[in-house]
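Technical annex B. To support the medicinal chemistry partners, we prepared a structural model of the target in complex with zinc ion, based solely on the information shown next.
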Amino acid sequence: MASKLVPVREYTVKAHKRLIHTRVFNFVCKECGIPTKRETYGPRPLYCEKCRPPQAPKKSLMKPQKAKPRPMIYKSKTDLD
Ligand SMILES: [Zn+2]
């Protein structure tokens, strides 16, 4: 097979959604040293699910909801003027 180098112009990829898949990794946990396996989307995990539980509670999710603005009730018409 013949081959040659061809120039490729630089281009920007538009924002889009991509379907990614998890992989199951067999590895030894860096913290407890126990051989385990773990399913992740990203690169090979370092810790087992006991040392680094998936979906650890995030502070951002724990914070209380902000008070929503409530409609005011105007009792007299003069308030609106
Ligand atoms: Zn571990």
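Notes passed to the chemistry partners:
DSSP finds one helix and two strands in the chain.
The radius of gyration is 27 Å.
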